[in-house]
């Protein structure tokens, strides 16, 4: 990692946090894709802090990006291409033992929309423009309201397919991979200048999962690299994750399918 030197540790950069998340995610997805081959369940533990790490990194990225609109557009395109790519890959391969439900782009987009809404409310308050405040509130509520609409459509047999396909293109909170846990993104954004408060939020959510008996409580280990974050960007890898994320999932899926059928 670029900021770790022998004998002297200078903390983690944004680049380092991304690499930690990618490595842990890769191990987790090995578990997901090779469950039919009997891989041990403890491999899944490595992935529990991953979403939290990426949520934190998205707060940092959104806070410093030059164009927040372009940032959201990249996530939206990533979400749609990931969804369609996984759908057609499963149709072509026909390997039903593993379902490709992964799409962290949706989680990050929902969280980013809410951060964007928070910004608009702040701008409206500063300029005393009620229109901007209302626009910001609408943006924040959109992923929540769209979730309710899609769930309502899914309860009706005549509109269920419309809702299923609509969910592929609409950033809805309850259809995100991590569901309501995505709310950590706007909450951490509100506390972006108070690292201790961000980590406290993570710890409280982890405690809730612990009492539910879910291994997701292990997300609390994300606090360690987050506390060691030094505020520096590190090496640039702007588009690497957008390519690596879907590609490694699809490759692991194809390897799993081949191993299972041969």
From TrEMBL:
Sequence intervals crossing the membrane: 12-34, 46-63, 130-154, 160-190, 202-228, 240-260
Pfam families tied to this protein: TraX (PF05857)
UniProt feature coiled coil, ranges: none
Keyword Transmembrane part of the UniProt annotation: yes
Keyword annotations of the record: Membrane, Transmembrane, Transmembrane helix
InterPro entries linked: TraX
Protein name: TraX protein
């Amino acid at each position: 990692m670029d900021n770790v030197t022998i004998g002297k540790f200078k903390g983690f950069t944004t680049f380092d946090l991304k690499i930690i998340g990618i490595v842990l995610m890769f191990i987790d997805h090995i578990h997901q894709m090779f469950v039919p081959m009997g891989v041990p369940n403890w491999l899944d533990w490595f992935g529990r802090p991953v979403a939290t790490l990426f949520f934190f990194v998205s707060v940092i990225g959104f806070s410093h990006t030059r164009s927040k609109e372009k940032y959201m557009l990249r996530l939206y395109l990533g979400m749609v291409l990931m969804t369609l790519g996984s759908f057609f890959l499963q149709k072509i391969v026909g390997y039903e033992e593993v379902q490709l439900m992964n799409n962290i782009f949706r989680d990050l987009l929902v969280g980013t929309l809410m951060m964007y809404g928070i910004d608009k409310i702040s701008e409206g308050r500063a300029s005393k423009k009620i229109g901007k405040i209302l626009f910001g509130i609408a943006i924040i509520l959109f992923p929540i309201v769209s979730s309710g609409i899609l769930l309502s459509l899914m309860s009706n047999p005549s509109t269920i397919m419309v809702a299923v396909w609509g969910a592929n293109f609409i950033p809805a909170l309850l259809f995100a991979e991590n569901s309501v846990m995505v709310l950590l993104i706007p909450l951490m954004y509100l506390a972006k200048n108070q690292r201790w408060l961000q980590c406290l939020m993570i710890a409280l959510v982890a405690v809730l999962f612990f009492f539910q008996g879910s291994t997701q409580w292990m997300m609390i280990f994300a606090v360690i690299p987050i506390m060691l974050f030094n505020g520096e960007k590190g090496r640039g890898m702007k588009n690497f994750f957008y390519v690596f994320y879907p590609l490694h999932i699809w490759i692991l899926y194809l390897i799993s399918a081949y191993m299972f059928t041969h």
